[in-house]
Amino acid sequence: MSLIPHVFGDRGVDPFSLDLWAPFSSNETTTFANAKVDWKETPECHIFKADLPGLKKEEVKVEVEEGRVLQISGERSVDKEDKNDKWHRVERSRGKFMRRFRLPENAKIDEVKACMENGVLTVTIPKQEVKKPEVKSIEISG
User: How far is the C-alpha of 138 from the C-alpha of 98, rounded, in Å?
Assistant: First the structure.
């Protein structure tokens, strides 16, 4: 369940997402929407889970750019075709994908971990402790 209103069907406007979206450009951009990512925050860390069925970890790249931007990208290659093949339906997406997320200030960007299991990429980013302001009592004289 998303807390962000949906504007373009299943594609919502996310203030933390830096995805590029061009509805009338090449097929390369249409694969952006196919890399679905969940982002949850726990008291200890931020966890991103991306569904990337059929991809190997070598075909996926996880980077943290300057300005605290997490980028998940990769490419699902096109199956080799034989001239005698006759396709009845092609529904699986292929091509390049990229998702970008601006990380909050409390993310420890130098401790990012990523693992891939059963077509699900999990990126874990620990959080820094937020120091609470120290309160000093002042004695009132008089």
Answer: 54
CA-wise closest residue to 78 among 94, 97, 54: 94
This prediction has a pTM of 0.68
Distance of alpha carbon 110 from alpha carbon 103, whole angstroms: 12
Strand stretches in 77-117, DSSP E: 95-102, 113-117
Nearest to 68 by CA among 51, 46, 50, 43: 46
Q: Is the pLDDT of residue 63 over 50?
A: yes
Which residue, among 61, 64, 65, 42, has the nearest Cα to 121 in the 3D structure?
61
Question: Would you give the DSSP letter of residue 107?
Answer: B
Which one-letter amino acid corresponds to residue 87?
W
Strands (E), 4-141: 6-8, 11-12, 37-41, 45-51, 60-65, 69-76, 95-102, 113-117, 120-126
Q: Residue 16's pLDDT band (boundaries 50, 70, 90)?
A: low
Helical spans, DSSP H, in the chain: 27-30
Q: What is the reported pLDDT for 48?
A: 97
